[in-house]
Amino acid sequence: MLPRTQRQEDLSRAYVRAVAAQAGVVVCEPASDYGIDMSLRLVVVRDGRWRDVGPQLDLQLKSTARADVGPADLSYDLPVVHYNDLREADPPVPRFLVVFVMPDDEARWMSQSSEELILRHCAYWLSLAGAPQTSSHSTVRVSIPLMNVFSPAAVQGMIQQWRERRGR
User: Residue 57 to residues 27, 30, 73, 75, 96: CA-CA distances in angstroms?
Assistant: First the structure.
């Protein structure tokens, strides 16, 4: 059986893939991990066929059963190396942290019936573009608003915002 951390990562990827499918975007996964786990790309109809035209959103995925969830936000201890990858002020492609918060009890991570497939609990997104440098060498505590649910509407909104910014 795969280690717990690998199963958590695989479920976070499944969550993002399900959201992306419903949002109508293409999911790309780099062959090597250099700080970006997945990218989402827009497809549109041009000249009578579907075409991958961008824009692209890059995602750093994390999953945890130990996030500190408060009434309005969740706190997550992000490794400094990933924090620094995500905090570039004006990256050529927008980068987002996506944290999938799962129950501590593995038996509750997923359930299935003939009617539904449920992944518990929820993923949240955060842009760290322009975030300050840190003097920490291990982790940085980031605060993610609970209203930043990683959903099909959120993905479409992020892409639309990027398109407007680039004048497309």
Answer: 10, 13, 23, 23, 7
The whole-angstrom separation of Cα 61 and Cα 36 is 8
Asked whether the whole model's pTM tops 0.70, one would answer: yes
Whether 134 and 140 have beta carbons less than 8 Å apart is answered as yes
Residue 28, strand partner residues: 39
- According to DSSP, the β-strands at 95-101 and 122-126 are antiparallel
Query: Which residue range is the domain that position 127 belongs to?
Result: 4-166
Number of structural domains in the chain: 1
Share of the chain above pLDDT 70, in %: 98
Residue 107 has pLDDT above 90, yes or no: yes
CATH code for the domain in which residue 118 is found: 3.40.1350.10
What mean pLDDT comes out for the span 47-52? 87
pLDDT digits (tens, 9 = 90+) for 4-28: 999 999 999 999 999 999 999 999 9
